[in-house]
Specification:
The chain has about 300 residues and is α/β, with parallel strands linked by helices. About 45% of the residues lie in helices and about 15% in strands.
Length: about 300
Amino acid sequence: MLLSTAFASFIKKYGDIKEAIDAAAEAGFDALDFGFFNIFRKYFDGESPESTEEYFREIRAYAESKGLVFNQAHAPFPSSVDDPVKTENIFWDIVRSMRNAAALGIKYIVVHPCQHLDYLKKGVPEELFEMNMKFYRRLLPYCEEYDINICVENMWRHRANASMRKIDRSTCSEPEEFVKYIDTLESPRVFACLDIGHAALVSEDIPEFIRKLGHDRLHTLHVHDVDGTVDSHTLPYYGICDWDEITEALKEIDYVGDFTYEAGNFINVLPRELALSGMKHMVQVGRYLIEKIGK
């Protein structure tokens, strides 16, 4: 099992992708998760030198020279908005991110489900299900073209029109719906990415969530902790999750994927001078948890 991290926060901290790779290697990570986020739009919009396959092959070679591989990616999000033209543009952004992730040697890319509708309204979960079946099936030919697999992620959302920021369920928040998504798509190119913090935010029993997804569906993780009120994306043991129970459940299903952090806010709050020591602590915690899983 590789110890991996989403390293968008590292790029922001160091201001240069190669310096971020150097820091991740020095900290002791095995692998990196590349995030094609809007703050880094130049990496997938097709308008800059950094969006070419040649650029990503160069970055892959540089990482490998430092003893790192790219194991996972995150497509641009949200996957849909309340505007058909913008949603279509997002679709092609996602396709370009799949192409560029493949140039990095990545085999799994997390693609958020569509969730721009008010999930709690009657009939909306069913409407979103049909929308998402069409959305993911439309991406499947590009999985074959780029030899990459899609991972659906469990979501949450802020309550609509609330005076305070309260958290509600959304697409794939519940394991039964998540399983339905994966099984209905019925593709060897589609798997589940369990975001542990998201499951905690909607008060799901995370170990039971892991068991219901099971060995065959669950191939990737977003590992982070939360305080229960916001999507804080911090390090395990710095929030509310029970990591003994989580690691035991992963061991029980014989989880076959990597241990991939999405805990960038643990680094974001640190000054640059402390960033490397913070990364080394992330590695120490990650190795401890991997050992508990037994991998």
